[in-house]
Write a structure and sequence with these properties.
8 strands; 199 residues; eight-stranded mixed sheet; Maf protein; single chain; alpha+beta; binds inosine 5'-triphosphate
Length: 199
């Protein structure tokens, strides 16, 4: 079976990517399957630079087709923070819970109409030092004032999709799989993967 390595340690992200690629008949592995892989230092200034760095570093190590995904939350009232720092927003030893606490405290007193935000996802696909694709997707929402629902991961219990009036924490994962930043980026990657695998 064909293998696609996803250069991630984030289980929430991996679960979504596996679900979205399920129809491709590809064995989707991750850094959990390559415990001795080099650590990727995310020192890029953009989602794209970090996604590429993850893919290039891990492709060089595995010698396999590798996907790097870098994503995050941009909040308008916070000048687009936490952005590329979303995973480590609360500093050393950051967890989803602490990141969410920090987000809420930064937005304390900010009225609903100024709580607009978007998730962004950039995905890079690399094999043998060649960049096969670099694509991006986004998803607009608003930041809630309290946690709602337990689905998803990261900031999802606070990320309201206005069209549904519900957070990604409350919405069924099948809806997130249709409209999320990651699903929009992956839809473009899937076209490249289909071409890549055609012979
Ligand atoms: P890898 O680098 O190992 O892939 P990571 O968690 O460090 O894992 P990122 O650097 O791309 O990944 O940071 C992504 C962060 O953005 C993630 O930890 C969440 O805090 C947030 N995030 C991204 N997509 C999200 C989503 O769909 N739902 C909730 N939070 C999300």
């Amino acid at each position: 079976m064909k293998e696609l390595v996803v250069a991630t340690t984030n289980q929430g992200k991996l679960r979504e990517i596996r679900g979205l690629l399920a129809d491709l008949n590809v064995n989707v592995t991750s850094l959990a399957d390559y415990p001795d892989a080099p650590e990727v230092i995310e020192d890029g200034d953009t989602f794209e630079a970090n996604a590429l760095k993850k893919a290039v570093t891990i492709a060089a190590y595995t010698q396999k087709l590798t996907m790097g995904e870098d994503s995050g939350l941009e909040v308008e009232a916070l000048d687009n923070a936490p952005g590329i720092y979303s995973a480590r927003y609360s500093g050393e030893g950051a967890t989803d819970e602490r990141n969410n606490e920090k987000l809420l405290s930064e937005l304390e007193g900010v009225e609903p109409e100024r709580r607009g935000a978007r998730y962004r996802s950039c995905i890079a696909l690399v094999k043998d030092g060649q960049t096969i694709a670099v694509v991006e997707g986004d998803c607009r929402g608003e930041i809630a004032t309290e946690a709602r629902g337990t689905n998803g991961f990261g900031y999802d219990p606070y990320f309201i999709i206005p069209e549904y009036g519900k957070t990604f924490g409350e919405l069924d994962p099948s809806i997130k799989a249709r409209i999320s930043h990651r699903s929009k980026a992956l839809a473009q990657v899937k076209q490249k993967l289909a071409e890549y695998y055609k012979d």
